[in-house]
Design goal:
The protein is of the alpha/beta class. The protein has three domains: about 80 residues; about 180 residues, 2-Layer Sandwich (Endonuclease, Chain A); about 160 residues, 2-Layer Sandwich (Endonuclease, Chain A), CATH 3.30.870.10. The protein has 18 helices and 17 strands. Strands 4-3-2-5-6-8-1-9-16-15-14-10-11-12-17 form a 15-stranded mixed sheet, with helices on both faces. Strand 3, helix 8 and strand 4 form a beta-alpha-beta unit. It starts with a helix and ends with a helix. InterPro entries: Cardiolipin_synthase, PLD-like_dom, PLipase_D/transphosphatidylase. Pfam families: PLDc_2. This is Cardiolipin synthase.
């Protein structure tokens, strides 16, 4: 038995090394299984060392039994992941069926197509083909680039709610901001407004039971999206709901990088100043945001909400600003946001500006950036100089040499922690949302971005990028070449471990 597990350990270690010596393969099953293989390999390694060096018979038997249990659980998990990647778990079929029912409510909305460039038409068609979410036209929006500004805008909008408030976050904390948020939700529930809240079961694992209990006691319907047990049984422990959405009365919506916690206001001493970006939208696109929330609500409750009052046509927005939502998830037909990001980069003619806290690229995304820069597109990446986890920084910097050599410009934000997830392409298309430019967001987690086709919003985002640059240090190819072997080792370690984070 011990010999079997020893051979298995070396086989798993070989697979991990092979996986990272070449490229991060974007096949759903491989990426889904990889973090589990890492953990199992580590557990086996520790237990085999115990067996090798500890001569206590009982401890050897316990270690062997533990390896057997881990092996059996791993086989079950790998089977579930295989079912998920093959779309055999019913997730996408149930969700699609429900989304079709919702679309019937919206079929009478104005769908007169505007005038778009060939590039925009391609992006719009790709998103609709992948997600079923069409572009909308009568919208208006504004960026919220500060934690205090963002939370104040959300609370102000919720305070005006008359019918419903829908809230979905990856992280909710029982701290100063969390309690401020809780108070407004309770207040509106007491006024008779329907309040529904989804939080990720692992992302919000530190959320106290009495926080949730108080919300429920006052009439707020609060649900966790896959806690530990559900995640294990479904093979989704490593596939989190990373979406961050607020929808008020089906008329006002918020989406971006902001979670509910004091660190998002720069109150965490370890992280310091926190720079994020949220977009507040009004108009038809909020109906698409509503669809995303209700799809997740259906997943956690089996409750279908199909009343027309959740999709009001009297939002009063006549401004022309085309906008579209794009979503992605582990067990969907495509890696939708990955395809969207790839299409944005490869279709760019003048510029591609990307802000992301995490930079972990597969081979195709790396080549897309390189080719765009080499053919003359102004490609710029802005990432934090000081990440929230040091090994994230190792992973980020492991791509610098190849990117800089191909004329991609890289800036490290030096004022604090840059958490914004933003794309700007050719002064016309912008994306603001929850999806980072890394393996986890593009292939493992459930994400949502707002895509806006508007020169005015693009101009404002360009100004934001220019502010980021002024507060950043540019990395040059010469600087990168001065780094020694130790940095290359750090980069390799970062890429090996980061899919777990």
């Amino acid at each position: 038995m011990v010999t079997f597990f020893t051979v298995l350990f070396w086989l798993l270690l070989f697979l991990i090394i092979t996986f990272n010596l070449f490229v991060i393969i974007s096949h759903g099953m491989l990426i889904g299984v990889y973090p589990y293989v890492m953990v199992v390999t580590l557990v086996f390694g520790v237990l085999l060392l115990v067996i090798r060096f500890v001569k206590w018979t009982l401890l050897i038997k316990i270690a062997t039994l533990l390896m057997a249990v881990v092996f059996i659980l791993s086989l079950y998990t790998f089977y579930q992941i295989w079912r998920n990647t093959r779309l055999l778990n019913g997730y996408i079929s149930k969700r699609s069926s429900y989304m079709n029912e919702i679309e019937q409510l919206l079929k009478n909305e104005d769908v007169t197509r505007g005038s778009f460039s060939k590039q925009e038409e391609g992006i719009i068609s790709l998103i609709e083909a992948n997600t079923g979410i069409p572009v909308t036209y009568h919208n208006q929006g504004e960026y919220l680039n500060g934690g205090g500004e963002t939370i104040d805008a959300m609370i102000e909008a919720m305070d005006k709610a008359q019918h419903h408030i829908h809230v979905e976050f990856f992280i909710m904390r029982d701290d100063s901001i969390g309690n401020k948020f809780k108070d407004i939700l309770i207040k509106k529930a007491q006024e008779g407004v329907s309040v529904r809240v989804i939080y990720d079961g692992l992302g919000s694992r530190k959320l106290k039971k009495n926080y949730v209990g108080e919300l429920k006691k006052e009439g707020v319907d609060v649900r966790a999206y896959d806690g530990y047990i559900d995640s294990l049984l479904k093979g989704k422990l490593n596939h989190r709901n990373h979406r961050k959405i607020v929808v008020v009365d089906g008329k006002v919506g918020f989406v971006g990088g902001f979670n509910i916690g004091d660190e998002y206001l720069g109150r965490d001493e370890n992280i310091g100043y926190w720079k994020d970006l949220q977009v507040q939208l009004e108009g038809d696109v909020v109906h698409s945001m509503q669809m995303v929330f209700l799809g997740d609500w259906y997943y956690v409750t089996d409750e279908k909400i199909l009343e027309e009052e959740y999709f009001p046509s009297n939002h009063g927005i006549t401004n022309y600003m085309p906008a579209q939502m794009v979503t992605s998830g582990f067990d969907t037909y495509w890696s939708e946001i990955s395809q969207f990001y790839f299409a944005m980069i490869t279709s760019a003619e003048d510029r591609v500006y990307i802000g992301t806290p995490y930079l972990v690229l597969n081979d195709s995304m790396l080549k897309a950036l390189q080719v765009a820069a080499l053919k003359g597109v102004d490609v710029r990446l802005i990432i934090p100089k000081k990440p929230d986890l040091f090994i994230v920084g190792w992973a980020n910097e492991s791509y610098f040499e190849k990117l800089l050599k191909s004329k991609v410009k890289i800036y490290q934000y030096d004022r604090g922690f840059l958490h914004a997830k933003v794309f700007l392409v050719d002064d016309r298309i912008v994306s603001v949302g929850t999806a980072n430019f890394n393996t986890r967001s593009l292939f493992l987690d459930y994400e949502v971005n707002a895509v806006i086709y508007d020169k005015g919003m693009a101009g404002k985002l360009l100004e934001e990028f220019q502010l980021y640059e002024r507060e950043s240090q540019q990395v040059t190819y010469e600087d990168e070449m001065k780094k020694g072997l130790l940095n290359k080792v750090k980069g390799m370690l970062g890429k090996i471990i980061i899919p777990l984070a």
